[in-house]
Amino acid sequence: MKVGRLAYFAAAILLMSSLTSWSQEKRKIIIDQDAAGPAGTDQQSMLLLIQSPQTEVLGITVVTGDQWLHEEVAHTLRMLELVGRTDIPVVPGAEYPLVRRQQETELWEERYGLVAWLGAWTPRFFHPADQLGEMPEGKPTTKAPDEDAAHFLIRMVHKYPNQITIYEGGPMTNLALAITIDPEFAGLAKELVFMGASLNPRTDDPEFVNAPTHEFNIWFDPEAAHIVFQSRWKKIVCTPVDISVKTRLTSDLVNRIKAADSPSARYIGKYARLRGSYNYLWDELAAAAWLDPSIITKKETLFMDVDLDHGAGYGNTLTWVERDKPKLDVQPLEVQDDLDLEKFYKMFVELLSAETPKKN
Amino acid sequence: MKEPSKSMTRREFVTSSAAVLAAGSFAPRTLATERPVGSPQASNRGPFRVIIDTDPGVDDALALLLAMRSPELKIEAITAVAGNVPLELTLRNALRMVEIAGRTDIPVAAGARSPLVRRLVTATYAHGENGLGGAVFPEPKTMPAKEPAAELIRLIVRQFPGEVTLLTIGPLTNIATALRMDPELARMVRGLVMMGGSLSGGNITPSAEFNIYVDPDAARVVFQSGIPITMVGLDVTRKTSLTDEHLRQLQAGQSPVSHAAATIARNAIEHNRERGFIVGPNMHDSLAVAGFIDPSLLKLKEYYVDVETTGELTAGETLGYSPDAGDLRRRPGMEKDPAALNMSIRGSAPTLASTRTSPVVRDKFVPNANVAVDVSSAKFFDLLIGRLSGKS
Q1: Rounded to whole angstroms, how far apart are CA atoms A86 and B283?
Q2: b/e A342-360 (16+ beta carbons within 10 angstroms → b)
Q3: Chain B residues inside the 8 Å CB shell of A125
């Protein structure tokens, strides 16, 4: 009788605690991504956010960057099919940067030297914007909704004011459009978290040795980044190249994920790319640091803008501290400097090995 | 990583796709498209679906009233943009105009508060603090549409693909935003008629016309979009000036529209006179609207138009390229010479650091705009004053 009562009591406590955790709201996030695929940093970062049981991914908005918009949408739809999360909408956005043009960029290169990574415009991989390129993972059968990214973003922040984190892993064209259309957009979001910008990375990577403040996401659409940095967000968190270059995707990490037999692990095992010596976990770190801020061991506050003069420095990152910042409107950013690498890798492996959480 | 899927180089692709795009919208292509002013031309029968993007603005207000008094136009929406005055005022002024014209069935949407990249420059010196040259009208009671301008433009164009003409009489921020957020939109627009630009010198700077000057980046997006463009710029709007006689005719009208038009016109003429101008106010925006209603008012000529976006002194300048533009190239019979079509279009001379001229805009002449080069001013004012005063 006594034992029975205890068990009853324990069961009640268990029930209560599980009820509390049930009622705890998941963290809402919208992913804006130049979602090249299959796998690679763009897809892997999205997968991390989807795999985390603490998040509710309201949607994925797509923008031309690493690849063209249409193929990125296809890769993302397919990835969601493979992990069984086709409930997450994939919303197409901008096909071209606001102002930058491919032709102008070619002339720039003639004058100032080759750009290490041109994304969708890289000559080796180039194909027209409306073609899909290779899709080894298969073509998707699901479709994108009939809405554009900017309006999806605006609609969502009005629906859930002050609750949504905007995660940005690509050029900021869609965000800039949302801000231009609805000046309240930035203020209604909870925060902006982005991978981008480069300050002074310590690396022997030829991409950055002679061009330390050049970073693709900012460079590909400088005007968009400028519009985003000028806006009144409640909080901006920046994962710059400086911290990205401290990470690597190794065959050891891929093998540890492969050892599991979940849809996500199979996807990574099959399509993860390990060529060359600079396989950084660019976007994955920005996602992981948002999931668990204790991964970041050092950070600082900086003010940021973009060089918009169409000269040698067009698209380069500009930063200041409080003391020397310009008189123009610039917003403070939380910039990540250093990380607990083992903690990050552990989380990376655990999340990508796990079974994909179902829709709420 | 992937191998290239096609052997075409980037440059080949860019030029060929651009050529296909432009040729598609203007075909069949000939150079001899000049039409004498006032010649009988298949006039627009209509009604044609239009969206008016505007920054009222004294002459914008008159242009809006003209449009709403014109049965050839089916106005699907009026979208406001910051320009002559800030958005708060252009939006309210647009709402005032639909109320005056009794056309509150037309949705009026709020658009961009500032240009894409640059800071807003207004022209209150010309349009007064309220944007209507000091003409006072009651506060509007009508509410703006719930959709922002760029979204409304997108929804309407997609609802009637191939049918909607954009009439833009302000800076092009809203249009560029809509085109960038929906990559397919440009192909679904029937055409774009703009008041903006000049091939013969500017008004706010020696090189730039105001609408393009305010947002040159947006203007460039529009000119490179592939939409068939009719550019009604200072080249012709300078030749229209509102006189005391026009004002007298407006004042003789008996409708709320004629009263409002007369009030705005009187203020504009007085303001001009106070500033010591010899000629009356130019009817920039009304001419663009009228030119769409009656194409025989304007003489058009094909150009490839590009916008200077970076010049330290010249940002906002529109440049018109044509095989027979420029003294070095002009010779009799030029417009019939097919070789002239192969003229390459070049920018500034190479510097020591570069081997090519920069920016090379096109390897070949492919027009992207019909530019108004002459106007029948008397015929235009017959139309404008006739409709505003309620006589026609």
Answers
A1: 55
A2: eebbebbbebbbbebbeee
A3: 1-4
Same domain, B174 and B136: yes
The whole-number pLDDT of residue B26 equals 36
- Measured in angstroms, the CA of A145 and the nearest CA of chain B are apart by 13
CB atoms within 10 A of CB B136: 8
> Are the beta carbons of B151 and A69 separated by less than 8 Å?
no
Neighbours of A271 (CB within 10 A): 18
Whether A80 maps to a domain, the answer reads yes
Query: B213 and B318: one domain?
Result: yes
Cα separation, A335 vs A300, in Å, equals 5
Query: pLDDT of chain A along its 360 residues, tens only?
Result: 455 565 665 565 555 544 444 446 899 999 999 999 999 999 999 999 999 999 999 999 999 999 999 999 999 999 999 999 999 999 999 999 999 999 889 888 988 899 999 999 999 889 999 999 999 999 999 999 999 999 999 999 999 999 999 999 999 999 999 999 999 999 999 999 999 999 999 999 999 999 999 999 999 999 999 999 999 999 999 999 999 999 999 999 999 999 999 999 999 999 999 988 899 999 999 999 999 999 999 999 999 999 998 889 999 999 999 999 998 888 999 999 999 999 999 999 999 999 999 987
Q: What are the catalytic residues of B?
A: 284
Whether residues B361 and B225 share a domain: the answer is no
Element (H, E) at B304: strand B298-307
- A230 Cβ contact list (under 8 Å, min separation 6): A305, A329, A330, A331
Nearest to residue A189, comparing CAs of A202, A200, A179? Answer: A179
State whether B360 and A103 contact (CB < 8 Å).
Answer: yes
Domain match, B291 and B354 both: no
Sheet of B229-232, strand order: B108-110, B73-80, B48-54, B165-168, B191-195, B229-232, B369-375, B298-307, B318-321
Q: What is the CATH number of the domain that holds A32?
A: 3.90.245.10
Domain that holds residue B341: 323-366
Instruction: Kindly report, residue by residue over B196-224, the tens digit of the pLDDT.
Output: 999 999 999 999 999 999 999 999 999 99
How many Cβ atoms sit within 10 Å of the Cβ of residue B238?
17
User: How far is the C-alpha of B231 from the C-alpha of B345, rounded, in Å?
Assistant: 20
> How far is residue A32's CA from residue B2's CA, in Å, rounded to a whole number?
23
Query: Could you tell me if the ipTM is greater than 0.85?
Result: no
- Cα–Cα distance for residue pair B265/B284, rounded to 1 Å: 13
How close does chain A come to B67, measured CA to CA in Å? 26
